[in-house]
Amino acid sequence: MVKLRQSVLPLALVAVLWEVLAHAGLLNMSFLPPPTKITLALLEMGASGELSTDLIMSVTRALGGFLAGTVVGVLLGIGTARTSLGRYFLLPVLQSLRSIPSIAILPFAILLLGLNEVSKYFLVFWGVFFPVWVNSHIGIAGVDTQYIWAARSLGVQGWRLLWEVVLPAAVPLIVAGMRVGIGLAFLNLVAAEMSGASAGLGYRVSASHLVFRPDKMLAALAALSLLGMAADAAFGLLVKRILPWSVDRS
Amino acid sequence: MSIRFGGIEGLTACTRVEFEVKPGEFVVVLGPSGCGKSSILYAVAGFIRPTEGLVLIDGTEVIEPSADCGVMFQSHKLFPWKTVEENIAIGPRMRGSSNIEARRISRALIHRVGLKGFELAHISELSGGMTQRVNLARTLAADPKVILLDEPFASLDSQTRIDMQELLLSIWENSRKTVLLVTHDIDEALLLADRILLLSSRPGSVVGRFLVPYARPRSTSLLSSGQVLELKSKLFTLLRSEQRKTTENRR
After folding, report:
1. What is the CATH class of A56-248?
2. What would the mean pLDDT of A62-82 be, rounded to a whole number?
């Protein structure tokens, strides 16, 4: 991962170049407003309260769907990796659902759940669930047999075996699945917000299109970019702090 | 017992292996590489079931792994998500000790294996020799009836291996636990064992049983003394001829 600090200079250079080209008349300002105008739009959105509403809505939906997708993904990963019912029944069903590109489920989710918050959370959940489930399954099914043998000859059994040995051993893969899930959470969030919402950064992008405000659209896109980077960085720090062994090897 | 993998047509790891280990005895299974000696150990631990025959501990058949048998593998299998102290405390905790008591046992053993100061270290911070010290301590902490050691020092450098053998000797000579150790190292067998079982090449079966009569407490200086020469050369000749068969079978 590129460090945030290292991306400041290249981004600043791109912004300066963009600004210069725009003022030199080489870019069409009404379609490609320069960074100064985007910054002004961002300030305007901040002052009107629009930005904070959009941010709060988007972050809440992304976080809620992400947490639900992670919990269900890990639980079903345990189910498909360690129970025969899961392996012979649930696994093939989930495998076929996983092959559907997750955004394609959006109209169906709206049809089924309605054009409301539930369908938005659901779409984020749907995107996060699959990578977390697949990685949990692979991680749990692939735990070194000798770890389990060693634990059992120390008297570790039942749920303690799962909690103290199997899950921690699978954590590096589960974490990798969650990281993929973060990206998909934002992807599906924006798709859901673009099709029928009244707030949120995805909504702001499509609404700015309708009223022809490319400056606001680019401001919302910039906010999405920052939000995505911040989420990934925060996740990386959190993992390093609470699950240090899972990053030792990577 | 016999152990076969993959059905009747499959690979026979060992055949008609029969032996008994008395309480407090240190028995070494010595055999060429690939003779099925680890499989025997795994059957005793309950990790695999013998195709024929059975394993009894105190008259009870072993059908699954339990805290009766402590196992130490060649590669350590310590849990990297736990500290040194937590790894060693697992056995006492599972036996029902309170956390405080488990920690006390853990700390005492850390001291015993010479790792004072590493209580809160993570496994990834330790060297190969240190991890096997923790491994030994973790196995001892669970206080099993039988300790099974699967080539525990084979991946260590020769000096560290000698350190570990001496540590094991001194701990064993004080505690007199029942131990079954598998190795292909004649010196290790002579140094540690009360009795050596020599296995043939695959399918392994017991082709020789030897008492190791040297006085205890022993130390590694035993190996450079004249008294071991006769047994050592006998074992060497037998092991070489079995090893040769293994090599020929592979061709």
Report:
1. mainly alpha
2. 97
